[in-house]
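does this look right to u?? zinc ion version
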Amino acid sequence: MANLTTLLTTLISANHILHYNSVVDAYGHISIRNPEQTDQFIMSGNRAPALVSSHSDFVTYRISDASAVDPNAPQGYIERYIHSEMYKRYSSVQCVVHAHAPDILPYATSGVPLKPVYHLPGFLGTEVPVWDIETIYNATDIHDLLVRNVREGASLAQQFASPANQTAGTSSTPDRNVVLMRKHGFSTHGPDIQTAVFRAVFATVNARVQTDSTLLRNAFSNMAGRDIDVRVWGQSGMLLNNAFEPLTSQQAKAAEESNAGTVARPWGLWVAEVEANPLYKNNG
Ligand SMILES: [Zn+2]
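got this back:
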């Protein structure tokens, strides 16, 4: 990764881009692993991402327990354990995003699976797990759905491993790029800021497209005189099944690999968009 000063300036832009693209609102956060001290990570203190504006807005935390390195650090996000446990479990992860995007939330609440429905979100793969914090609560936990401690963060981080790898404890790279959090939101990660933001934005766009496609399809089934796609609707005009047709595993894998080489293009656009918007200040 680039040097720390450059990274922090990029991290300010990333906060703005996530807001501009409706991934975060007043809530949600993005962090990076400290490239100069890899057992630490850095994220904004307790403020809305759109309003992060300078390097002094960031707080450095220990990955071991998400405690602030500076004992006088300002108040941080409660859910920083989401970030610390991802860095602890997966050595290749350099950036983590957590948010409650309204476009994603239907898939964290309805039981309808989130699937990649076009090529750019191929990184979603064939299965996006839904982690339910309720299943790990003990008698003393606060049942507010927030990830409040190491145990809860570790349980979420575990879901980024495939079932075969979940007992391994640590590994280099997560098997999954996005995990939904039931009644709460989602988390994603990347080997750099740009990739993590790409995944957060396009997971959100995919959810919107999937929802629109599902609504359209169901409305269309009630329209008379339509030209039907018999692969989807059958000769009788009846839906062949109610499950959405996502990318195949082969399509998802190939699309993810192809798109990985193009992340700089949307990133350049997104930086220009937030720099042109007076809401966002980057004094980095
Ligand atoms: Zn949250």
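Strands lie at 29-33, 40-44, 58-62, 95-99, 130-131, 178-181, 185-190. idk if thats expected tbh
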